[in-house]
Amino acid sequence: MSEVREIVKTGLANPRRAFPQIKALAKSDDWAEREVSATALVEISKKQSEKIIAEMLTWSKDNNPNVRRTASEALRHIARKQPASVLPILENLKNDSSLYVQKSVANVIRNAGNYEPEFVLILCSRWVFCTMRTRTGS
Fold it and tell me: Which of 37, 60, 70, 130 has the smallest set of CB atoms within 10 Å of its CB?
């Protein structure tokens, strides 16, 4: 737990200094370490949302599915308050090849729906429409 506090403290002061350490944890095969990375990012996002969004946009394109999942998990707090601001990241991840990432995206959307249900309804309707068009070739 003290590890999370130190990472968050560094991240609140200067997120760019904390990102390499957080990303290393996100890449871990150890679930607990990946959760530390996500938790740290959520806490940092409460004060540094713009910097988290910018970094997670990059992470959402990473080759490692654990990093992509962390990019999604990091949005939990921001998505409740400003769901439109995280849309570019969710767009990158919505059709991810990893079910692990897909479930995280669904959870972020569900959380946003508790605060902004109309936004989520519109988003899901648009995604369904786009999927149907892609499948039918229209």
Answer: 130
Give the separation between CA 56 and CA 138, rounded to whole angstroms: 32
Regions of the chain short of the pLDDT cut 70: 1-2, 131-135, 137-138
Residue type, 95: N
How far apart CA 63 and CA 84 sit, in angstroms, is 25
92 vs 52: CA distance, rounded Å: 16
34: domain range? 2-136
pTM of the model: 0.90
CATH number at residue 48: 1.25.40.290
CB 91 within 8 A of CB 101: no
Q: How many domains does the chain have?
A: 1
Q: Assess contact for 7 and 40: CB atoms under 8 A.
A: yes
